[in-house]
């Protein structure tokens, strides 16, 4: 059977690679295996890099674990979490391997006992057969007892390993969750700051635009004020001149009212109508006042019609 699972083997390889120059290997001086020369070539190495340089391979590491010829110095490993994880893997694998060896030995003893029973049954000497059967039952009882003891020990070790693994995973999960929360908080604050900066920039542009608009309107108002002042002066002079012309025409009109009512009235009405059409709004209002008309409100055409009606 494999001493380490595929995932556990990869975890150990990754640990050795990431700590290749750390003194984490400690091989025993005595070796009980067959390839002593090969073992002697790397047994004094302390680091993974030295181990590989002296011809060592990962299969040699597995073999040394099986023979209890290798210890790992976890104090020199960079990451405590990785060290604890590998430590649990090694303990678990060792317990599983020892359990498998015990099961194998028990199976061999059981087979041996069964063979002894078969031989005893075949043997002519009943006494020998009974003794063999009795011995076989003793061996079976011993095997069953050792099997139960080993299973109990293995269960206790596995509970401890499982608890430690859960603790490591919980610590990593909490750490990861905290980092994710901090990253989200930082991202949210950055977005908020960016939003406020854009808002401030937008308000600044708006204020600048409104200032330009106000300046433009002020210049326009100044220009219109100048134009209104010029127009008022011009309109006042024109109105005074036109008023004098109208008064002269009205005097001529009043002088001719004593002529005949038929022909002369018709001609005077046409002249009066032409005079009214030439009048401006202030002149029309002034003339209506002279005629005794109290209502002098309205546009030019309304005032002209009202003045004709008062004639």
Ends distance: 135 Å
Number of helices: 9
The arrangement of helices and strands along the chain is HEHHHEHHHHH
The secondary structure category is mainly alpha
Please tell me how large the radius of gyration is.
60 Å
Numbering strands along the chain, what is their spatial order in the largest sheet?
Answer: 1-2
Mean pLDDT: 81
Count of the domains = 2
Unreliable sequence segments: 229-234, 258-264
Commentary on this structure:
- This protein is mostly helical.
- The protein has 2 domains: 6-185, no CATH class; 215-310, no CATH class.
- 79% of the residues lie in helices and 2% in strands.
- The protein is built from 9 helices and 2 strands; from the N terminus they run H-E-H-H-H-E-H-H-H-H-H.
- The chain has helices at 6-18, 36-42, 48-53, 58-66, 80-122, 126-255, 263-278, 281-290, 300-310; strands at 25-27, 70-72.
């Amino acid at each position: 059977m494999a001493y380490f699972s595929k995932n556990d083997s990869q975890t150990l390889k990754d640990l050795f690679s990431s700590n290749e120059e750390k003194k984490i290997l400690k091989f025993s001086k005595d070796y009980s295996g067959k390839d002593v020369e090969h073992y002697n070539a790397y047994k004094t190495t302390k680091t993974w890099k030295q181990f590989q340089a002296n011809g060592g391979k990962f299969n040699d590491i597995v073999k040394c674990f099986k023979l209890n010829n290798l210890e790992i110095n976890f104090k020199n490993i960079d990451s405590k979490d990785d060290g604890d994880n590998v430590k649990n893997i090694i303990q678990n694998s060792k317990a599983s391997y020892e359990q498998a060896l015990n099961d194998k030995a028990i199976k061999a003893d059981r087979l041996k006992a069964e063979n002894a029973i078969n031989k005893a049954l075949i043997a002519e000497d009943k006494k020998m057969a009974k003794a063999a059967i009795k011995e076989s039952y003793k061996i079976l009882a011993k095997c069953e007892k050792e099997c139960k003891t080993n299973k109990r020990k293995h269960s206790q070790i596995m509970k401890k390993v499982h608890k430690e693994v859960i603790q490591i995973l919980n610590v990593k999960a909490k750490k990861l969750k905290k980092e994710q929360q901090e990253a989200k908080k930082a991202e949210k604050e950055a977005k908020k700051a960016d939003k406020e900066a854009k808002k401030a920039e937008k308000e600044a542009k708006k204020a600048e635009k409104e200032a330009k608009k106000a300046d433009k309107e002020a210049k326009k108002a100044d220009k219109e004020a100048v134009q209104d002042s010029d127009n008022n002066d011009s309109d006042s002079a024109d109105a005074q001149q036109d008023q004098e012309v109208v008064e002269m025409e009205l005097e001529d009109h009043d002088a001719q009212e004593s002529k005949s009512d038929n022909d002369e009235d018709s001609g005077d009405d046409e002249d009066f109508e032409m005079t009214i059409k030439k009048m401006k709004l202030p002149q029309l209002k002034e003339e209506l006042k002279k005629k005794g008309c109290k209502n002098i409100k309205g546009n030019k055409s309304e005032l002209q019609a009202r003045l004709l009606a008062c004639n």
